[in-house]
Each structure stands twice: as structure tokens, then as C-alpha cells.
Design brief:
single chain, 11 strands, OB fold (Dihydrolipoamide Acetyltransferase, E2P), about 45% strand
Length: about 160
């Protein structure tokens, strides 16, 4: 395994296996009810309170253009990038694996199968299943700044979020 190998958390969303770098995950917890925010990006449920800080919460399935399963094994994964956090519901945690980023397929036909090519960094293999490696920078941009102008929703995921009262 090369120096680019990193620990990945693998999880299912619909029929697909997805992966995210473990260093980008700060918490895994049971799903909690979100307070809706008018005008949110499709797939965003609203805001949740994580120990006094409001965090944008959503369904990863909807963000990827998939139908949410509403599984009994559903889990909320809290991702962090550049001091911003988002909490996304996934259908089921699968496992942990070391993945060599250099071995990801970044041009194959399977990339188009997900329908959200812009949110995927590549395709890898876990045991006997292919997985989609999420591009967390693109996912954060989609969730926190739908207009691409740096205004609006971005403040919801700003450092520290909004303090709950």
C-alpha cells in the first residue's frame, strides 16, 4: 500500500456503497429530527443542535439523486471540513478500510451510474463490491452554498455554526 492510502469509512446509501475519509468524519450518531429551514437546498432537512451548535442536516440519498430508504439502520454522519460541519443521514454503516487514492478509477463508466458525478472523486473496490469515493469539498459546496456566491446557506455551516439558545 502506498503513502496515499487512507482509512475510509464505508456506508450504504440506497443500493450504492460509498466511502469518505475517516479524517473528515467527526461523529457518528443516531439520526435526530431537524428543524426545517425555508429555501433550503433539496435534500437538506434543516438544522440540528449538536451540543449547543447548530449544524446543517440532510439526506445524502436525496443529495445524490437517489430515493432514501428510511432504513432502521440509518445513521447520521457528521462531516467536518475547514471548520465547517454538515450532518448527513446514510442508510447503513458497512465498515472501515484502507484505500489507496491512487488506485481509484476516475474515468470509468461506473462513475456515471450514480448520477451525481460532480460529488464523486472516483470508484474503488471493497471486498467484492465497488464503492464511490465522495468528494467532500464538492459535497460541502453543494450543501452550504447552492448559488456558488459565498452567501446565504454558507453561514449555516460556518465555524462554530450558530449558537443555540
Amino acid at each position: 500500500m502506498s503513502r496515499s492510502a487512507r482509512r475510509q469509512i464505508l456506508f450504504e446509501v440506497g443500493p450504492h456503497l460509498l466511502a469518505a475519509d475517516a479524517q473528515e468524519i467527526c461523529e457518528v450518531r443516531e439520526p435526530s429530527r431537524a428543524t426545517p429551514v425555508p429555501g433550503s437546498v433539496p435534500g437538506i432537512a434543516g438544522l440540528i443542535n449538536l451540543r449547543g451548535t447548530l449544524v446543517v442536516a440532510g439526506e445524502l440519498a436525496t443529495l445524490l439523486g437517489l430515493e432514501p430508504l428510511k432504513s432502521e439502520e440509518a445513521t447520521l454522519i457528521v462531516f467536518e471540513e475547514s471548520e465547517q460541519r454538515i450532518a448527513l443521514e446514510v442508510d447503513r454503516l458497512v465498515g472501515v478500510s484502507e484505500v489507496d487514492r491512487e488506485e481509484l478509477d476516475v474515468k470509468g463508466d461506473l462513475l456515471e451510474a450514480l448520477g451525481a458525478r460532480d460529488l464523486v472523486a472516483g470508484v474503488g473496490q471493497y471486498e467484492d463490491r465497488p464503492f464511490f469515493q465522495l468528494d467532500m469539498k464538492a459535497l460541502f459546496a453543494r450543501v452550504l452554498d447552492r448559488e456558488g456566491d459565498g452567501d446565504g446557506a454558507r453561514q449555516l455551516g460556518s465555524p462554530g455554526g450558530w449558537e443555540a439558545t
